[in-house]
Automatic annotation (TrEMBL):
Lipoprotein is among the record's keywords: no
Residue ranges constituting the Metallo-beta-lactamase domain according to the UniProt record: 33-247
Protein name per the record: N-acyl homoserine lactonase family protein
Organism ancestry: Bacteria, Pseudomonadati, Pseudomonadota, Alphaproteobacteria, Rhodobacterales
Annotated TM spans: none
Family affiliation: Belongs to the metallo-beta-lactamase superfamily.
InterPro entries found in the cross-reference section: MBL_superfamily_lactonases, Metallo-B-lactamas, RibonucZ/Hydroxyglut_hydro
Source domain of life: Bacteria
Coiled coil start-end: none
Amino acid sequence: MALQIHVLDYGDIELETSFLVLGHECGRTRRVPVYGFLITGGAYPIVVDTGYRDNAIMESLGMRGLQFHDNMIENQLAKHGLKMGDIRYVLHTHLHIDHAGKDDLFPMNTTVVLNRRELEFSVSGIMYPQYPKPDILHLVERVYEDDAMRFLDLELTGAEEIMPGVWCEPAGAHTEGSMNVIVETAEGLACICGDVVYDFNDQIVKHVRVNNYMEPQVTGNHSGSKRAEKAAFKKLMNNYTFVLPTHDKGAKVEHGQVVGRTGMVVPGPLTETLPKREWFPM
């Protein structure tokens, strides 16, 4: 069976728009989704990212959490006929507050997989309080339990396979230890990229305050250089058929351009098809 990716809806958060795109609409509040992903069709199901712990914890960042009963991870998995204990691996694009808040609901024989540099970065004090104490302490506890944690060293290895058709690569953006999850689908490679991309429209389709036609706009929340973030974005746009971020609908990409937006299953029908942009020499 070909691998499929199902979007898990963990609720929404309200935050300032300039958090998503650097300097854009400062002071304006915007509501965005928080997605996780379920990979099926392989030897066992895999979850990528687990959302935020509860609504109250988002207040530590000055944000509002909007998570309801239907958004609970166990209820999202139940829609696919799965229980928490059925998941073999939980992969993390990174460990920010809205990505690793429900790991403690999984049994210790579910292996959490992350880039070793990301756990190191999470306890370094940089970008605090985006790494909440209860989330990170739970992951430290997992280090000392057999099979509860698997570390990748992607800066050195370049890529590591999780199971046939699923592997991880260094993201090169957002946080020092962020990683992308690559899935081989029937229609091409899909990349689950976490927060390397926040908003396709404002960053690339109708990008704001950028005068070069295919130059991406950077986010307002990154730990590395702006140049590195732009390069990571360009890599996504030039190497994958589907690009799936955490806070925006996924995109189908052809020749470096967004040509459609994905629904709740990838591959699957597009919810919106965009016209290809034609570029002419000056």
